[in-house]
Specification:
Blueprint: H1 4-7, H2 10-20, E1 26-30, H3 43-46, H4 59-71, E2 76-80, H5 88-95, E3 100-104, E4 119-124, H6 128-135, H7 139-147, E5 153-159, H8 167-176, E6 180-185, H9 199-215, H10 224-232, E7 234-235, E8 238-239, E9 267-268, E10 275-276, H11 292-300, H12 310-326
The structure holds iron/sulfur cluster (2 copies).
């Protein structure tokens, strides 16, 4: 039987050792039900999750809740929403207690005197034209001014099918702003015409993502194995979907057989009591889900399956490193 040490040379083994020390236990938190945008295709609003429960307004309850999450073993709080920056006191309740990542649309700048090294991920849905169609405004024009040169910020660029063949101009603008970028694909939750993937488009975008990684290695935080997984939905001959997804809220996970999954993962609503099914919305069809973090986690929880060959294990290491960089567990 293959073992990690039998498959890796010294350099890869050192890389493996660095990440194997990390014991990441993440959960996701809706900080608020409100947002200063209404993007077409936002899973949160399109699935009415913002109406699931009224949000908790008492900051002391948020603080007590984060303490209990820490006691539950969570060591990475991923803040989403709605728009978390609308309630910075809630963001601070997490940041003071736990390693915290804050997803934002970037329209409001996180004050760095209050959150000096919190990792910020800015959502971006394409170029100016796509952003106006899908989000009602060119958010990059504002977010890039707010965060230019910030060492703890990256763009989470959700590539739409209309972007195929055109992503370099955006990556170049991000590089020029002195920021990093991570790539994922639009799931088109609201079925906006012209924004659905075909096999051919997915093949093309995979090639383009690979080229971008080669051309902008200091800007693009990614890996070719991740590009393969997210564009094909295939890993070692297995298909991504409900039966394999690792990012299902643990107390709601009654799948049999139980797949490899994120330990203790919960996605909490902003009432601090309601749980959501998974890291995106319960109304999303798993067969078209392109969620980047769920695909990354799918690889990460399946280490043993990657002991098939040195190449497979190296692909696993690269995906793990990518995740660890994006959530500040290791430097860029
Ligand atoms: S900015 Fe984010 S939370 Fe707000 S509407 Fe757009 S996708 Fe949804
Ligand atoms: S929608 Fe995506 S993240 Fe949610 S359970 Fe289905 S595959 Fe997993």
């Amino acid at each position: 039987m293959n073992t990690v040490s039998s498959l890796l040379d010294k350099e890869w083994y050192e890389r493996y050792k660095r990440i194997s020390r990390l014991n990441i236990r993440s959960s996701i938190y809706d900080v608020t039900n409100q947002c200063n945008l209404r993007c077409r295709g936002c899973f949160f609003f399109s699935s009415d999750e913002h109406k699931a429960a009224p949000e908790e307004m008492d900051i002391r309850k948020w603080e007590a809740f984060v303490d209990s999450e820490k006691a539950r073993g969570v060591n990475l709080a991923i803040l989403i929403g709605g728009e978390p920056t609308l309630y910075l006191d809630r963001v601070a309740a997490f940041y003071k207690r736990l390693p915290t990542y804050c997803a934002t649309n970037g329209l409001i700048k996180v004050p760095r005197d209050r959150f000096p090294d919190m990792m910020v991920g800015i959502s971006l849905w394409g170029d100016e034209e796509d952003e106006k169609v899908l989000r009602g405004k060119d958010t990059f024009a504002i977010s890039s001014k707010n965060y230019a040169g910030d060492p703890d910020t990256y763009y989470l660029y959700t590539i739409t099918p209309k972007q195929v063949g055109r992503i370099e101009s955006i990556i170049k603008r991000i590089a020029d702003a002195g920021l990093k970028v991570h790539l994922q694909l639009l799931s088109n939750d609201e079925g906006v015409e012209g924004f659905s993937w075909t096999d051919e488009l997915l093949r093309d975008i995979r090639d383009e993502m690979d080229v971008m990684l080669d051309r902008y290695p200091n800007t693009v935080i990614s890996s070719k194995y991740y590009h393969e997984i997210i564009t094909t939905g295939q890993m070692l001959g297995r298909s991504f979907g409900w039966n394999e997804c690792p990012s299902v809220t643990e107390p709601m996970d009654r799948r049999k057989p139980q797949p490899k999954r994120l330990i203790r993962f919960i996605r909490w609503a902003a009432d601090l009591n309601t749980m959501h099914r998974c890291c995106t919305s319960a109304t999303r069809d798993c067969s078209i889900c392109k969620d980047g973090a769920a695909h990354m986690s799918w690889v990460m929880v399946n280490k043993r399956a990657h002991l098939r060959s040195a190449k497979d294990l190296q692909g696993w290491i690269e995906v793990y490193e990518m995740f660890a960089k994006l959530y500040r567990f290791i430097p860029w």
